[in-house]
Design goal:
Helices cover about 30% and strands about 25% of the residues. With about 130 residues, the protein is an alpha+beta fold. It has a 5-stranded antiparallel beta sheet with strand order 3-2-1-4-5.
Length: about 130
């Protein structure tokens, strides 16, 4: 049984190496790679950052809340942060520090550059949907 497992593991490794060397299985550039950050400049110097990859979808870190939802919002908006569908939130009475959100990278060949200061975390999430939930 142990010999079979070793032989099987070796066979899979050889197959994967052959596939990686083949042009048909060459890595495909993702459709979008975005470097995202958010911070509360008046509260602290701490900046939270991540990289979001879409098509194929993935967050730069395993703790990214929902990369598929973020990529879905960006797809609806065509990669335009000003056109994100946002979230239905009632921010009346929400207090807190202003939140700065930034994005840079590319969306299907188009350069992305976004920087905005929102009144508070609720207003940021209301406008930006799932993209900055990390």
């Amino acid at each position: 049984m142990r010999v079979l497992r070793v032989v099987s593991t070796f066979a899979v490794a050889v197959l994967l190496a052959a596939m990686a060397a083949s042009p048909a299985y060459a890595a495909v550039e993702p459709g979008a790679v975005l470097n995202l950050s958010w911070s509360a400049p008046a509260a602290s110097n701490q900046v939270f950052t991540t990289t979001l990859t879409c098509y194929p979808t993935g967050g730069g870190e395993e703790w990214y809340m929902d990369a598929e939802a973020a990529c879905g919002d960006l797809t609806v908006a065509g990669g335009d942060f000003e056109a994100l569908p946002g979230r239905l939130l009632n921010c009346t009475g929400v207090q807190g520090w202003a939140i700065r959100t930034t994005a840079s990278g590319h969306w299907f060949g188009q350069t992305v550059s976004y920087d905005e200061l929102h009144a508070n975390w609720c207003e940021a999430r209301k406008k930006l949907g799932w993209v900055f939930i990390f």
